[in-house]
Design goal:
mainly beta; OB fold (Dihydrolipoamide Acetyltransferase, E2P); six-stranded antiparallel beta sheet; 45% strand
């Protein structure tokens, strides 16, 4: 199966309420399930563009519920569906903690997808304001993982 088709399949499963999917094609075996649990309460979402000299734009995201700000800052999102790990191994400490200063390109966590470990790097310089994913939590494409200020 072509890589692009696998990515499309993963995104389709991510967008659905499917609880299990298994497929076999020649020597490829693919098994997926979703365990969707909302991380945030429903609220108003406000996107504020912040101009940068390097790229077209960055976005500062705020989610508010009943006047209380839950999430604000530069958000690092999951680039794919998989299992989030906050450290390189079970014995090692987390890559980052709330309050840590991080540099652009610094590893914040790992998302495992199809037996591949994908390092999640900070897209920004700043301070870790929030870690939104639990260790070994299944994450979806585009799900907020970290807030950097």
């Amino acid at each position: 199966m072509e890589f692009d088709k696998i990515i499309t399949l993963i995104r389709t499963v991510s967008d659905s309420s499917l609880t299990h999917f298994q497929m076999e094609d020649k020597d490829l075996k693919l098994s997926m399930k979703t365990n969707k649990q909302p991380k945030f309460a429903a609220g108003q979402v406000v996107l504020d563009p912040v101009p940068t000299a390097q790229s077209g734009s960055e976005f500062s995201v705020k989610i508010e519920e009943e006047g209380q700000e839950i999430l604000a800052g530069k958000v690092v999102k999951a680039p794919l569906v998989g299992t989030f790990y906050n450290s390189a191994s079970p014995e090692a400490g987390p890559f980052v903690h709330v309050g840590d200063t991080v540099k652009k390109g610094q590893v914040l966590g790992i998302v495992e997808a199809m037996k591949l470990m994908n390092e999640i790097e900070s897209e920004y310089d700043g301070v870790v304001e929030q870690v939104l994913a639990e260790n070994e939590q299944v994450v979806e494409y585009g799900q907020p993982l970290f807030v950097i200020r």
